[in-house]
């Protein structure tokens, strides 16, 4: 498995049911930290329609432009014109058990790898904006730990079995749901 089979970065689709909080943050972190090694997307099985305000506040605090983020269906990524996906990562318990759509892979890798990095949903936190923001900060920290672990790997040259094992170990890191 190489990230540049057809001269493109390794592509990752971060999945969650609502595509409003964890998956949006995962997409942002992957894009922000990968220095071009990864092209990240996010989607959901039952998208909420808009990103959660807590996710957008966090991205703004981190200096990440929020204009490109939207809550969308994962079916967009199974359409013929969709970008190829090398890896699909679920970040919530609900999406991990759902049947994923068929993704268009690359000629060398027709089916993307799958990993589960389940985390508690910060959108479920009740209380004031400060409590909500604290929950989103925790999710950011846990996702950043996972992305850092992924980026420390030579994933572009790892075989599918090695990468699958490494992704599973990453999914068991701090904060796993």
Describe this structure in words.
The structure is a single chain. The protein is of the alpha/beta class and 177 residues long. 34% of the residues lie in helices and 12% in strands. A four-stranded parallel β-sheet has the order 2-1-3-4. Residues 1-5 have low confidence and may be disordered.
Order of helix and strand elements from N to C terminus: EHEHEHEHH
**In percent, how helical is the residue content?**
25-40%
Structural class: alpha/beta
| Terminal CA distance | 29 Å
Averaged pLDDT: 88
The count of β-strands is 4
Profile the largest sheet.
4 strands, parallel
> Strands across the major sheet, in which order?
2-1-3-4
Helix count from the secondary structure assignment: 5
- The low-confidence parts are 1-5
The general outline is globular
In terms of DSSP E residues, the strand content is 5-15%
Whole-angstrom Rg: 15 Å
Topology:
Blueprint: E1 10-16, H1 22-33, E2 38-44, H2 53-61, E3 87-90, H3 93-97, E4 113-116, H4 129-151, H5 160-171
Helix pairs in contact: 1-4, 2-4
Quick take:
The chain has 177 residues and is α/β, with parallel strands linked by helices.
Features:
alpha/beta; 12% strand; four-stranded parallel β-sheet; single chain; 177 residues; 4 strands; 5 helices
């Amino acid at each position: 498995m190489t990230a540049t089979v057809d001269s493109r970065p390794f592509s990752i689709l971060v999945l969650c049911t609502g595509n409003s909080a964890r998956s949006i943050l995962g997409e942002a972190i992957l894009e922000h930290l990968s220095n071009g090694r990864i092209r990240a997307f996010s989607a959901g099985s039952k998208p909420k329609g808009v990103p959660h305000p807590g996710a957008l506040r966090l991205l703004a605090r981190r200096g990440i432009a929020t204009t490109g983020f939207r809550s969308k269906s994962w079916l967009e990524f199974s359409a013929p014109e969709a970008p190829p996906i090398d890896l699909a990562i679920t970040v919530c318990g609900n999406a991990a058990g759902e049947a994923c759509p068929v993704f268009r892979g690359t000629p060398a890798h027709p089916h993307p790898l799958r990993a589960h990095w389940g985390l508690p949903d910060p959108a479920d936190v009740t209380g004031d904006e400060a409590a909500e923001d604290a929950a989103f900060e925790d999710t950011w920290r846990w996702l950043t730990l996972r992305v850092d672990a992924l980026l420390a790997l030579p994933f572009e040259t790892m075989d599918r079995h090695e990468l699958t094992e490494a992704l599973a170990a990453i999914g068991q890191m701090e904060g796993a749901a």
